[in-house]
Specification:
The protein has 204 residues and is an all-alpha fold. It has one domain. Helix content is 75%, strand content 0%. It is built from 9 helices and no strands. Helix 1 packs antiparallel against helix 5, helix 2 crosses helix 3 and helix 2 runs parallel beside helix 7. The C terminus is likely disordered.
């Protein structure tokens, strides 16, 4: 249990570092944040309110797919926001393209590690991760499940006027393979009726 808690706390810290890096890169935010900004643009709500409401929607979808959010889901929703604000305050503003691109790549990799850590705890994942796990539970492979859980908020958020950039597309396309690789390295098997180590368990 101690190892799982350490992974959970580490994942929160990594998210609080990775998200600000994407924001400061100004090359496109994560798909769920496209959804948040889109809902904010359509409703006039603050980004904080949009995050909570949108998270509840995705948690509801996850429940409908057979995966319940855990205490980690609630804790992450409450604690990560303030942590992100702290990190944003210390990251220096970048104007040149190369350091911004470096922030994009580093932030995406950090978030991939965070996703793998939080999923492997079984203590409650984030909104898009709960949906991803629900899709895996229903029989999809990790990569297509991640593409759908990222692609859905990306498309809806874009239609609502959310912020999007080339980095968003890079995130959405690369996250599935990276999460698949990371979960395999952690020897974590998503809840499917397929033995660990088979191509079906980790395949597209």
């Amino acid at each position: 249990m101690r190892t799982r808690l350490l992974r959970l706390f580490a994942s929160w810290i990594l998210v609080a570092v990775g998200v600000p890096m994407l924001i400061e890169a100004e090359l496109g935010v994560a798909p769920f944040d496209v959804f948040n900004t889109g809902v904010g643009h359509a409703t006039g709500w603050s980004l904080g309110i949009c995050f909570v409401v949108d998270a509840m929607i995705f948690f509801g979808i996850g429940i409908a797919l057979g995966v319940r959010p855990g205490l980690g889901s609630v804790g992450g929703t409450v604690l990560i926001g303030p942590m992100i604000n702290v990190v944003l305050s210390v990251i220096p503003k970048q104007h040149a393209l190369f350091p911004r691109f470096a922030l994009l790549i580093a932030g995406t990799l950090i978030l991939a590690v965070a996703i793998c850590l939080v999923v492997s705890t079984d203590l409650g994942a984030g909104p898009t991760e709960v949906v991803m796990l629900g899709l895996i539970h229903r029989g999809l492979g990790i990569v297509p499940a991640r593409w759908i859980s990222d692609g859905t908020p990306l498309v809806i958020g874009t239609l609502l006027g959310g912020a999007i950039g080339p980095g968003t597309l890079l995130f959405a396309l690369s996250m599935g393979p990276m999460v698949k690789f990371g979960l395999r390295r952690l020897k974590y098997e998503p809840r499917r009726h397929v033995p660990l180590g088979t191509d079906a368990a980790f395949g597209v």
